[in-house]
User: Which sequence fits this backbone?
């Protein structure tokens, strides 16, 4: 990388023209981030999303968030005839640590824009907002009970049995995981039976267009969350890549279901951490038998249909916690590790933001070697970052484009009061 790299200056949304052109007719656009607490990652992803919604007809956003919370946002965005109290109020639904991931002013601005955009669209063309993640076991079970009690159908018995199976563990997934690790009895059969029952009921309940159809889909999705969350928590104590692979497999399955729900011409925007959207085969994750959504959707839909955009910065500030469940802090992000992608881009582009397109980089043999690439999670300790916050990556293959932001600022969280019960520390170091 001693030679200068081709790049496009990035100052305003108009400078995204080369990226929009490169995306072309891709059906799935994956928008990453190198942390969950950096303002510019959110604002640039929002700028890209607005352009793709307006100019290329993208139908929905799918994010690294829980299904029940995101579906509440989705319903508010699509039911534009109901009173709308504003995104800042709506996003209080994200009240589980780390609350700032989706409960922040940057997301609030985008949600308000989406609501205004949808007001002028027919219901079938309104942009949706969905959660891909697998953590909401108890919340999803509660949503299913509400749904089946309203429907009064045959799935209620199966849902009650599943809920009773988990009751001895309260809402503590760590307690459940530890309990089933030492006994043969788990709740796997109960959640599977519940999912099957909801699937048998769905064709009748889902008849007709609009949000009623999505509500039936959401009930089935909550049951799928319960099935895969139960698998996730059992795998969690095994160590290794098992739980990560369950999680990214679930997110990929959910994305596929959403594309099928919206029809063969639908297009999806995905917001997740770089460690999920950047193809794992071009990192050291691959050697550890770890897969991710970016790899899986490329394999399923073909590279021409998937466009991944990675993000990174040289230094700045970030919102994170010093340990799992700790109060959020604004922390310094030190200058990137010497020899890393971020460091080398900074040497070429000091005090500049830039867009790099992989198609313009791949003919340079020197770029085929993996270099360290920063990844900050919701847990972060700047003083130890050199010991674990870098993923060796072949950048032009891991992503189709890369947004480099030389200096970034911390995200602006909403004043959300987090639930007292914090789920266990289930994130790998980088995420």
Assistant:
């Amino acid at each position: 990388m001693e030679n200068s790299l081709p790049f496009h200056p990035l100052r305003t949304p108009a400078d995204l023209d080369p990226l929009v052109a490169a995306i072309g007719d891709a059906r799935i656009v994956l928008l990453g981030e190198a942390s969950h607490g950096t303002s510019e990652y959110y604002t640039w992803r929002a700028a890209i999303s607005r352009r793709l919604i307006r100019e290329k007809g993208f139908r929905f956003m799918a994010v690294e968030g829980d299904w029940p919370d995101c579906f509440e946002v989705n319903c508010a965005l699509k039911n534009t005839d109901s009173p709308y109290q504003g995104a800042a109020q709506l996003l209080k639904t994200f009240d589980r640590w780390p609350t700032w991931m989706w409960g922040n002013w940057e997301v609030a601005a985008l949600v308000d824009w989406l609501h205004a955009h949808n007001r002028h669209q027919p219901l079938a063309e309104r942009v949706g907002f969905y959660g891909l993640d697998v953590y909401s076991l108890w919340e999803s079970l509660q949503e299913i009970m509400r749904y089946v009690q309203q429907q009064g159908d045959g799935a209620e018995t199966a849902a009650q049995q599943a809920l009773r199976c988990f009751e001895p563990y309260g809402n503590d997934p760590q307690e459940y995981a530890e309990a089933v690790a030492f006994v043969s009895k788990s709740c796997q059969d109960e959640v599977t039976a519940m999912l099957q029952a909801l699937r048998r009921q769905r064709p009748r309940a889902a008849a007709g267009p609009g949000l009623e159809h999505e509500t039936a889909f959401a009930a089935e999705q909550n049951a799928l969350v319960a099935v895969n969350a139960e698998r996730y928590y059992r795998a969690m104590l095994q160590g290794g890549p098992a739980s990560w692979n369950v999680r990214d497999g679930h997110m990929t399955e959910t994305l596929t279901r959403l594309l099928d729900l919206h029809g063969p011409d639908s297009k999806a925007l995905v917001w997740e951490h770089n460690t999920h959207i950047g193809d794992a085969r071009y990192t050291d994750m691959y050697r550890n038998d770890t897969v991710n959504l970016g790899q899986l959707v490329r394999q399923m839909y073909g590279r021409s249909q998937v466009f991944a955009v990675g993000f990174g910065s040289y230094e700045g500030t970030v919102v994170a916690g010093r340990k799992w469940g700790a109060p959020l802090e604004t922390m310094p992000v030190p200058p990137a590790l010497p020899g890393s992608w971020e460091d080398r881009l900074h040497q070429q582009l000091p005090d500049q933001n830039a867009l790099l397109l992989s198609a313009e980089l791949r003919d340079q043999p020197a770029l085929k070697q993996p270099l360290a690439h920063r990844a900050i999670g919701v847990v972060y300790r700047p003083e130890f970052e050199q010991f674990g916050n870098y993923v060796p990556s072949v950048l032009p293959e891991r992503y189709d484009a890369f947004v480099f932001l030389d200096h970034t600022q911390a995200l602006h969280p909403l004043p959300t009061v987090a639930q007292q019960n914090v789920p266990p520390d289930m994130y790998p170091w980088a995420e």
Remarks:
- The beta strands are 8-9, 28-31, 60-63, 128-131, 268-271, 306-320, 329-333, 353-357, 401-408.
- The CA atoms of residues 319 and 329 lie 5 Å apart.
